[in-house]
Design goal:
Strand order of the largest sheet: 1-3-2
Number of domains: 1
Helix content: 55-70%
CATH architecture: Orthogonal Bundle
Distance between the termini: 47 Å
Radius of gyration: 19 Å
Order of helices and strands: HEHHEEHH
Number of helices: 5
CATH class: Mainly Alpha
Strand content: 5-15%
Shape: elongated
Structural class: mainly alpha
Oligomer: single chain
Largest sheet: 3 strands, antiparallel
């Protein structure tokens, strides 16, 4: 996700449930209008919207923004390249979860088979 060297440059994320766009801007070193633009470009980034269309970001959103920032500003990805990179990461994670679930189900079925014999 983020390299340790990148984490040192950005402030620590406080233990809060929701963050306003201004707080996220400071935490991630990105201006608010850039955050709003990234919401349109990256489907993984979807803050909660409340009264008056105010955005409230959660911790996972802040981490995603930091990852997007790293891909674009530090690793030199284009918007499209960063989007593809994040989607491939999501596919890999989903594939890993599916494999783990299949192995768990096989183990449970083998236990049932032992009980039946």
């Amino acid at each position: 996700m983020l390299e340790a060297s990148n984490n040192n440059e950005l402030p620590a994320i406080p233990a809060k449930r929701y963050f306003a766009i201004g707080e996220v801007s400071e935490l991630c070193g990105v201006k608010p209008h850039v955050l709003r633009y990234w919401e349109q470009e990256f489907t993984q980034l979807a803050p909660v919207k409340r009264r008056g269309n105010r955005r409230y970001y959660q911790r996972h959103d802040v981490l995603m923004i930091r990852q997007i920032r790293s891909l674009l500003y530090e690793q030199g990805y284009t918007i499209g390249g960063a989007r593809a990179h994040l989607q491939s990461d999501g596919v890999k994670e989903e594939s890993l979860r599916t494999k783990q679930l299949i192995h768990q189900m096989i183990a449970e079925l083998e236990d049932i088979l032992v009980l039946l014999n």
